[in-house]
Amino acid sequence: MSHIRTKNIGGVNQARRIFMQRASALSVAGVATPWALNLAAMGDASAAGATDYKAIVCVFLYGGNDYANTLVPYDAASYAAYQALRPSLAYTRDALTPTLLTSATAPIDSGGVSRQFALAPSMASLVPLFNGGQMAALLNVGTLMQPTSKAQYRAKSVPLPPKLFSHNDQSSIWQSSAPEGAQTGWGGRMGDLFASSNGNSTFTCINVAGNAVFLTGQNAVQYQVSTSGPMSVAALKSNLFGSKACSDTLRALITQNSGNMLEAEHARVVRRALDSNDSMSAALAGSPALATTFPAGNSLADQLKLVARMISVGASMGTRRQVFFVSIGGFDMHDGLVSKHGPLLAKVADAMAAFYASTKEMGMADKVTAFTASDFGRTLTANNDGSDHGWGSMQFVLGGAVKGASFYGTAPILANDGPDDVGQGRLVPTTSVDQLAATLGGWLGVSDTDLTLVLPKLANFNASSRKLGFA
Amino acid sequence: MHYRPALAALFATTAALAACGGSGSPTSSPAPAPPPAEPPTQAEAARFLSQVGMGMSRDTLNAVQSLGYAAWIDQQMSMPVQDKRWDWLVANKFDTATNKFSDRGFDNVAWRKLIVAPDVLRQRVTLALSELLVIGLEGLPGPWGAFSAANYLDLLEANAFGNYRTLLQHVSQNAAMGGYLTFKGNAKADPKKGSLPDENYARELLQLFTIGLTQLNLDGSIKLVNGQPQDTYTQDDVTGLARVFTGWDRDMTGTTDDSIEFTRRPMIQTAAKHESGSKTFLGYTVAAGADGAASLTQALDALFTHPNMAPFISRQLIQRLVTSNPTPAYIGRVAAVFNNDGKGVKGNLAAVVKTLLLDSEARDTKVAEQAGFGKLREPILRCVAWARTFGAGSKSGQWTMGNVAEPSYQLGQAPLRSPSVFNFFRPGYTPPGSAIGQAGMVAPEFQITNETSVVGYLNFMQRLVAGQHGDIEGSYSSLIPMADQSQTLIDEINLLLTGKALSSATLSSIKAAIDSMPGGTDSYRLYRVYATTVLMLASPEFIVQK
User: Fold this and answer.
1) Considering only alpha carbons, which residue of chain A is nearest residue B231?
2) Is the confidence at residue A41, as pLDDT, over 80?
3) Is B536's pLDDT higher than 60?
4) Among A279, A440, B199, B462, which residue's beta carbon has the most beta carbons within 10 A?
């Protein structure tokens, strides 16, 4: 995209103009241009010339987090409904008192009634961050193609997200707006916009949790690194069985192109590994140690600690905008929810609290926004000792730039087949993932127009409601 | 069971087909090309063995060449099922109380069987089935995880050339699966507690083990109605089917969980916990009053008539053994055999496996030259290819491979250590931003291939090859005598390890490197063997099976 690289000559408007010219030239020529191509073509138009540093961090809770035992109804009426609908799973109200969340404005449910929420008792480490204004809660957020009512869901009178209640598809839609098989995710599509302003575009999208469509763009490729940090090929660091010729041959073999597409792709991954692992290793080796203590025996904390270290060297490596992905599994609690859910949420809360503390320590707290996501919410009613797959859920955003101590969105009315659920407390989302994404993207510097390209369903939402206002 | 009329007609068509004895296949898959009449060349036999086996010896190569593909497959399939993993764990005293809440022993016995079992085709198909009917060791609740998982692999192995319907029955009553997908202990709805049956197994049985999410044609292509794909089931179907999977629990008759015994017993029914009302899903109704066993049998029978079953399972078996992107015609030919093995039997896995291996698309070396043909060898298969080629053994006799699933320092994959029921990789996975994706193709194994894993693999294999693993060691004694003749050495390893997969250019570059190494003593010769092996294991031409 160097031919439209403009950040030194005309900034955003110049890039925008060139992009519009290019886009219109393409359409005049009658070439079908999928939106993703448009996105790639405009590259520098959005947030070009950014000189500051910002990052978002997706904390994905794989398996579908149980919303009702995460952000727990607390006011007397809704607690009573919660307790009645899941007596075998419900916390006692007393147990929730220490983690009651306080906000300047009470959350309102879809019937117009003020509500109160507490965090799960095991999430106590996040309570000071919420009440202190660095964390906000998002109410009943989930995958949507457009605003959707329960009646519309029942009548199938509006497009619905495909493959509702299916793990792999709903996590894919969360991350990409399309079911499994999607080629790009919205984190990666934002990365496409920012890659050119990053000194080393390889590190625009970084995944510490393996592989997720979230971080793949049209051009942006996720750099995947494990919590052990970047790895080096032993046979290239020192001669393979004493032979430099063998090491040289190894390098040539593993990176060479091929007419077979699978071989070519494997070599592409290897080239990326060789190019990026050593530079990241070197940068990390030069970064000062963090004083913040991350909890031990917590894989999410291990991942977030590495993210914090990479953020600490981000600016010195020339990156301006970064999108990170971390994850923790085990949330598919069809059974054993009472014994397993609290401890797992404790890991999430403790890891995120430590991560916030580390960004504060680095003086980067207002440059980094973390948010939770999950396949779907779950049922409110219990099966024997767990809950089943649902749809809308509760999520959190955390960071110094977050307008915290607040709830965003509309609280659901707790019921089995009530106004907000399609049965068993499976919520019809009242806030779309795309609105969450647009808010984060806007904070990073993605323009409103570009947001509708990054998030193709966003245009189905009223322009005034596309951003939630939490950042 | 009562059918709704419209669906009854639909399924009756399939049932009639299944019973028609193979004459007339109205669903229009072209007949498979006859297997090659000529005996396979050495290169063809080696390529065949790299698909069906996991590394090879000169003996197996000779056997394939002299018997021909079909007879060799028959011979493999007729080998008795023996040497159960569960028994090996007992014999090696992994059932001591200290192991009750650990999975100690499982990696040992799983790798041992992959490496040494003589019935290599059965082992290959067992691994494939373990990636279709997935349980993951780390998701097994309760005690004796190693024994539960070992029994599960034994079950897949025993049924690998049996009937898929029978296999589904066993899997659905298996205690490890009951724990993994949480229907062990599942009870009928309790209005007082407001509880409903757990939907987990019902959903994954539909989505992953039988019919998938989208209606398919026999050739695996998506069935369109007015241009739109059609879902196979709704949430209501899941809720209805979940009622079938109530009342099952571990069989603790005369035993306790201090004993490993329950891990090899099928689950049993508790009538009071089973939903006695009717169960309706996909247009079927299991009538009220049917007990747990009858409900299960009827539900699986009903699912088994679904037209998706054959293409859904056939495509994935082809992907596991031969190529990531089989043509619709290839899928259709295999699916037709799934529906009817020629003797009126549906679900005959032996016939399906044999068909997919003998199909012209699998055997034709011209097809293999197409840019999109083949599959990434998953790390387990690369490692086993090395182990079998070099007769790897265990110094301790205990096969202490360890958990090698970690990708930074280890192999990045280990048997039954998928992180979820969705397997290590999904059949529809496409590497993002790739030419493969732009071509509309898939490459499942790339889901676990990344900047970390490619490095971890190279380092792990280098240590393993050079005898630095600690317990698992290759034997190179037969190669030492030829190691001073680099061409001979390279030809031999290329034949047995890669199935002659390397191009002449790659072989030349390896030869040049090996020629630069000193020789003349056994320790130098050993380094030449190591280096040749590592270079071949690292080559994309080996890593992709074509």
Assistant:
1) A163
2) no
3) yes
4) B199
Determine the 3-state secondary structure of A140 from DSSP: strand
pLDDT at B9 > cutoff 90 = no
The amino acid at residue A460 is N
Q: What is the interface size between A and B, counted as CB pairs within 8 Å?
A: 248
- DSSP code per residue over A2-28: GGG--TTTTHHHHHHHHHHHHHHHHHH
Q: Given the structure tokens 């209005």, which residue do they identify?
A: B191
Separation between Cα atoms, residue B26 and residue B254, nearest integer Å: 53
CB proximity B342 to A under 8 Å:
no
Residues paired with A322 in a beta bridge:
A55
Bridge partner list, A321: A54
Pairing of strands A135-142, A393-398: antiparallel
Q: Give the C-alpha separation, B204 to B212, whole Å.
A: 9
B432: pLDDT confidence band, cut at 50, 70 and 90? confident
- The residue of A383, A389, A426 whose CB has the most chain B CBs within 10 angstroms, and thus the best one to mutate to test that interface, is A383
- Report d(CA B166, CA B133) in Å as an integer: 13
Tell me which H or E stretch contains B268.
Answer: strand B268-269
What's chain A's average pLDDT? 89
- Mutating which of A211, A214, A249, A262 best tests the B interface, going by the most B Cβ atoms within 10 A? A262
Which of A220, A223, A249 is nearest residue B510 as measured by Cβ atoms?
A249
* Predicted confidence (pLDDT) per residue in A350-407, tens digit: 999 999 999 999 999 999 999 999 999 999 999 889 999 999 999 999 999 999 999 9
Residue A414 DSSP symbol:
P
Number of domains observed in the structure of chain B: 1
Domain enclosing residue B271, as ranges: 1-30+163-362
Of B346, B335, B326, nearest to B441 by C-alpha is B326
Q: How big is the CA angle at A121 (ends A118 and A127), to the nearest 5 degrees? A: 60
Whether residue B461 lies within 8 A of chain A, CB to CB, comes out as: no
Give the residue from chain B lying closest to A240, CA to CA. Answer: B531
Report the Cα–Cα distance between both ends of chain B, in Å, rounded. Answer: 46
CB B452 to CB A85 under 8 A?
Answer: no
In a domain, B286, yes or no: yes
Question: DSSP string spanning B342-359?
Answer: SSS-S-BHHHHHHHHHHS
Q: Please, are residues A336 and A66 in contact by the beta-carbon 8 Å criterion?
A: no
Please check whether residue A231 is in contact with residue B408, taking contact to mean a CB–CB distance below 8 angstroms. yes
* Token pair in block for residue A143: 């995958």
- pLDDT given at position B33: 55
**Cβ neighbours of residue A21 closer than 8 Å, sequence gap 6 or more:** none
Name the DSSP letter for residue B97: G
CA distance B288 to chain A (A): 21
Domain definitions of chain A by residue range: 54-227+283-465
Do residues A137 and A71 lie in contact, with contact meaning Cβ atoms separated by under 8 Å? yes
Which one is the CATH code of A54-227+283-465: 3.30.70, 2.40.128, 3.40.720, 1.10.10?
3.40.720
Contact A113, A106 (CB under 8 A): no
Q: Which of B440, B540, B526 is nearest to B478 (CA)?
A: B526
Torsion region of B397: left, alpha or beta (phi above 0 gives left; psi -120 to 50 gives alpha): left
Q: Judging by beta carbons within 10 Å of its beta carbon (0-12, 13-18, 19+), is residue B524 exposed, middle or buried? A: middle
Interface contact B367, partner A, CB < 8 A: no
Q: Which of B519, B509, B419, B499 is nearest to B49 (CA)?
A: B499
A5 and A196 Cβ atoms separated by less than 8 Å = yes
8 A C-beta contact, residue A206 and residue A225: yes
Q: Name, in order, each residue with C-beta under 8 angstroms of B276's C-beta and a sequence gap of 6 or more.
A: B188, B288, B289, B290, B291
Residue B411 counted as domain residue:
no
Strand partners, B240: none
The ipTM (two decimal places) reads 0.92
